[in-house]
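Worked problem 6 (solution included).
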Amino acid sequence: MADESIPLALACTYTLARRDEDGRVCPIDEDEAQAWENSRAVIVRETGAEGRLLVALVSLDAVPEPFQTDHETGVVSTPSGEFDQWDFQESFIRCSADGAYVANFFDPAWVQMRDATAAGCEPHIDDIQALIAIKRRSDLISDQVDWRMFDISVSGETDGLTAEEALRRSRFQNDAPVHRVHGLEGLVSMRSETMFDLDEDDTRDGVEVEVQVPDTILDGWMEVRDFPTYLIDGVRAIFRRFLADRIGDTPIEEIVRIQRSRGEMDSICRVFEQEGFDDMGTSAPFADDRVMQGGYSTSQVRNFRGNGCDIIVFEDFAGSYAYAFPEQIRVDLENNSGLRH
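Solution. The predicted structure is:
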């Protein structure tokens, strides 16, 4: 008799699919039809691209296999052999004893936990808990993001929106986002660079001249609603708590953000300084020691005002960020969050 405490997996092949006129899942084109023979298609998710679906093709002869993962060595053991953990993730799905889909191995751990919890599958929940424990000891930024997102997603923090309402807001297409209305896209800082000025008709050595060249360009702003993490109610709740004394009535969905690598905070700030934004001083880090195990804290926050916007710039373990929202009536941030003039 199989040990019901051991998680199960089904061998599969991942591919894209579409729905036909009757709503049935089918290959994208006839050339792929042969690969679907003697298989069933397990819908993983909608991709958001032209009605495409990500599906796992599972052979009709496939049976669930118990597996055990050594997260320290990255080796997965099954009755059919041992697999490298990465190869296993791309070739199997998490499943129940009756072969029903539970979760993807290649999704972030917090997503896998969400799906396994929804399926009520304790063996997978235990396996994912072990994976999270490994990630908590990792120095990789992706792992640190993963376990923090896990902590937030299971914290019970909420802003009161239903999943359907959050999804509806995330899909709204804003024709006048803050960065376009207020001229934030393409702001640039300049740096000095020494060059040789050569005359085509002059055979003498060139003359050194100092010229200004672009240094940092702030392009690629996005509304908060466009990031996948917006759909996590705990993320929205914490984000709103961090910014509550700054954004007034501005919906968090309409706040815009730009992200750069960790260590680029000063470069971002120089853009606003050179572009003539008012430097409103620094304020205390955003911090949490209740939801995320081990705590979370950003750098000191730089505050700028200009073009009808308030801007905050800071960095954390994963990157450097600027957030912008319409200028608010001045509040006493000196008491609320440590603003210094």
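Discussion: Residues 4 and 167 are 36 Å apart (CA to CA).
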